[in-house]
Amino acid sequence: MILIDERLPKEPLHSEVVLHVRRHLRRSLRAGRGTAGDLALLFGLSSDEEKRLKLRRALDSASKIEAAAELIANARTAKPSVISLGHDDEHLDRCRAWLRLRKAEERAFDGIVATDLEMLLELSKARDYATGNTPEVPAGLAIPILIEGETGTGKELVARAIHDIWVREQENKGGFHVVQVSGLPPDLINDELFGHVRGAYTGAQSERPGRLEEADHGTLLIDEIGDLPLAAQVRLLRFLQDQKLSRVGENRERQIQVRILAATWHTLDEDIARGAFRRDLLHRIRVGWLRLPPLRKRRGVFTDVIPELLHKLGQKALPPITRSATEALSLHQWPGNLRELVGVLRLALSSAGGSTVRLEDLPPHLQRPYLEQPLFKRAPGFLCDEADGQGLTAELASWRVKEVARSLDALEAPEAAADIAGLHNFFATIPDASEDHKTVVQHLQHHQELTREQGRLTAIETEWRQIRSAPQLPDEVVRALVEAQQKALTKREAVDLELIELSRSTHLIESPWFKLLSEIREIPVFAQQDLMRILQGFIPMVTLAVSVFPDLIEKVRSFSSKGSILEQMRKALGQTQPSFDEADSATELQEEGTTNESADQDALPTKPRDYSREHWEVVLSHFRSKSSAARFLKMDQKTITSHLRRLDIEERWTGNN
């Protein structure tokens, strides 16, 4: 028996799309309407693979999907025990094509422009909901649907399409009605929805049916239902329970049958948390749930939707819009979504006067963000524009690409890595006049410069790849881009080789100061610390030590040739405990009640009043607590406090005193 793996893509939207398509394919196969192509799509196979495997044989089986899995497994060299359903990028492209076909088959969607995956999915769900019925009382009533989306996303268009499908499928002759409740006072909303009888209130000279009654046997879209007052929400909830209502001012109930659609820009779950919307009403209206994405989040929508919109608006020129104009439109956030976009396109068509819409035809607030980009960001647009507007020769393409290259050369190099910059700063601070030490400083400086240049050239390469990946570039442009990208690659490889050669140098490793730094990092208290943190404390300590002990540099160089520098320093100082360099480690053994009473103090002035501000800063940086510093310095804590106050130094102890 072959097991079927129901694997899904990683991205949530892609998983939702795949599950949606699988559900339809399975329903079709179970109902006996399925085809071999449906089986191929379910398992992520191409039409050629479907024919080669002769998947149509599985349609004769009672278990069509399991039979197809057996056919697929038997055709493979090493017969697997598990066959996966389609889930990869290629399968996702086929699912997109399936959704586009499903939209195209439904004429009610003709007025809705959608090519992106998310919107196509919502339209497919809308088609399902349009003919879906609920088993609740009254039985067979079309399910309510909530349509969420920002202003201008097409909520009313989708609602009307749902009504058109429902009316056609159910052979219903009811009409489509819309009531806008936003901004209406509560009393007027009740009257608008439920109507009134004569004398219901002052001025009610005649009876009036509400919008719900007017929509009997049809559809009522309650637009901006999130703005419905709580009192009106209660009355609407009661109506939805049994489809009965009473007009304002009357005692009898009227039985009607209305399909309720609701639209809102609110996030109703958040309104419920604020107490502005009833949870039980949300459960009634959100049986079907559509969430229309804003224009700025619809992937690839501008390259597909804008030409279609222009065509609907009467554009005859080819191409209808230039590449640069399309890219400028894609940079805008479009708070008004499609409604705002259509208005801009109408203005642009008027400016273009029947010819192709160009960048200069767009409003200035849309031109500016595009023009503020560096030239290399605008390269695909203007290169394609020139190819469309004139005969683009190889010479012109090469010249234009060289302009892009000059723009890329202006890219600033990124900051050097923190550890390399920290090492350079450390070595540059040490007043070691030896030639080998100067060489180390120069090598570290050169390493910083090369690393930054490597980062800059890598960024340039990335930009070239992005420019080349732009669709529909003319062949002349592609050839010029390939040549420019190869030059950038050659430069970067040269820097890579130089860095490799520099890394082979032994100057840094042989430096006594690097050896000392390495030994300090092996001390347990420093082993887990970041290099930059160690260097930040080590640099002022070395500076202080050199100022107190002028022969320290020669001592360190001498000790380096005899083994461990720290061990040699201990011996020279007659110590058996860690030196001042390790004082932080030694003095923090507070849990064991141990202290470093024998630690050397010769690196500091004999009298506390002679301590400079720099001396005290070193003390603060190397001792976590005042008590540990007091033990090491052999003075009481009050004395330390008084000296710090005298020099106006803030106490920054991190440990318990």
From TrEMBL:
Question: Which SUPFAM superfamilies does the record associate with it?
Answer: P-loop containing nucleoside triphosphate hydrolases
This protein's UniProt keywords:
ATP-binding, Nucleotide-binding
The answer to whether keyword ATP-binding applies is: yes
> InterPro entries given for it?
AAA+_ATPase (IPR003593), AAA_lid_NorR (IPR058031), P-loop_NTPase (IPR027417), Sigma_54_int (IPR002078), Sigma_54_int_dom_ATP-bd_1 (IPR025662)
Q: Which Gene3D superfamilies match?
A: 1.10.8.60, P-loop containing nucleotide triphosphate hydrolases
One protein family per Pfam:
Sigma54_activat
* Sequence ranges of Acidic residues compositional bias: 581-591
Name this polypeptide is given: Sigma-54 factor interaction domain-containing protein
Entries under PANTHER family matching the protein: TRANSCRIPTIONAL REGULATORY PROTEIN
Where's the Sigma-54 factor interaction domain?
112-350
What does the record give under GO molecular function? ATP binding
Q: Which BP terms from GO are recorded?
A: regulation of DNA-templated transcription
Q: Which organism is it from?
A: Chondromyces crocatus
Q: Where is this region: Disordered?
A: 576-609
